[in-house]
Amino acid sequence: MAPATLECRTVAGEIWAYMDGELSTERADAMRVHFDGCAGCTAQLEYRQVFMDAIHESISSQKTPPALREKVLTALFAAA
Ligand SMILES: [Zn+2]
User: Fold this and answer.
1) Mean pLDDT of 65-71
2) How far is the CA of 10 from the centre of ligand 1 (A)?
């Protein structure tokens, strides 16, 4: 099977699954190829990674009020 050429909207829809390692190897490879050639989707990926790091940090530090954490998570999933 030839490597699939993904559109940006497809990448955007599967970016969480990609980050979570839930995609098949072939699909993840196709995503990687797309990120290599697409600055826009790479920025989206980096943005989400920074966001997730910040969330993990706030959860582990226990300094973030639960309401704020919930607000951040809601905003995050609304944007996905
Ligand atoms: Zn793209």
Assistant:
1) 75
2) 9
pLDDT tens per residue across span 1-52? 445 589 999 999 999 999 999 999 999 999 999 999 999 999 999 999 998 8
Q: Give a yes or no: residue 73 inside a domain.
A: yes
The answer to whether position 2 is within a domain reads no
Phi, psi angles (nearest 5°) of residue 21: 70, 30
Ligand 1 centroid from CA 31, angstroms: 9
Per the domain annotation, does 44 fall within a domain? yes
Q: Does 52 reside within a domain? A: yes
* 3-class secondary-structure state, position 2: coil
- Supply the range of the domain harboring residue 31: 8-79
Residues 51 and 26: beta-carbon distance below 8 Å: no
Give 35 Cα–ligand 1 centroid separation in angstroms.
7
The CA 25 to ligand 1 mean position distance, Å, reads: 19
How many domains would you assign to the chain?
1
